[in-house]
Write a structure and sequence with these properties.
about 190 residues, alpha/beta, five-stranded mixed beta barrel, 6 helices, 7 strands, globular
């Protein structure tokens, strides 16, 4: 299977060209964030009149809680978290300037509408492959919320990080397609 190589941060032109089910490899900066960090980020968004802090505008959020460093890598493992858990915050963050998210599992109908409205996408990463995905991370640093441990906002650099387009910028979802030919029908 061929993969589309994408450089992060993603432009709206690149996002518009993606189709549901398409395999991609991401290279560049990602930001990790989970439930507790999302609540903190929403509080900061409220205090900043809707402006994203930490230079997040135009970037991609990876719903992940990495493990400590191992085997000479920044993390021993880093796998996707169930994305629907972040649907309480994701629409506001996309409207404020987040261009893509990465997680596992289906998203709400509202997220499909938000992707269509903002031209953003949702990428699916394979669950159960956290040790492999950690090999794609070349560096990391905590940007905010260090006291949250694994749920801190982290900037990570990835190289050839494998994902699939779960919801494209037109709002089509891989979860609405027949599995055997999802990539061909997109």
């Amino acid at each position: 299977m061929s993969c589309k190589a994408l450089e992060l941060p993603l432009s709206h032109e690149a996002l518009a060209s993606l189709r549901v089910g398409e395999a991609c490899e991401l290279t560049g900066p990602l930001y990790t964030l989970r439930d507790a960090g999302h609540m903190r980020l929403l509080d900061e968004l409220d205090r900043a009149d809707g402006q994203l802090p930490y230079g997040l505008r135009g970037h991609t959020l990876f719903y992940a809680g990495p493990t400590p460093a191992a085997a000479g890598r920044p993390f021993g493992a880093i796998g996707p978290t169930t994305a629907s858990r972040m649907d309480f915050a994701a629409p506001r963050l996309h409207r404020a300037g987040i261009v893509a998210t990465i997680g596992k599992g289906d998203r709400s109908d509202e997220m499909r509408r938000v992707c269509r409205e903002t031209g953003s996408v949702y990428f699916v990463a394979v669950g159960g492959a956290a040790a492999y995905l950690a090999k794609c991370v070349v560096s990391e640093r905590v940007e905010a919320y260090d006291e949250l441990g694994t749920e801190a906002l982290r900037r990570i650099e990835v190289r050839r990080f494998p994902v699939f387009v779960g919801i494209d910028a037109q709002g089509a979802s891989i979860y609405d397609l027949d599995a055997p030919d999802a990539g061909r029908r997109a």
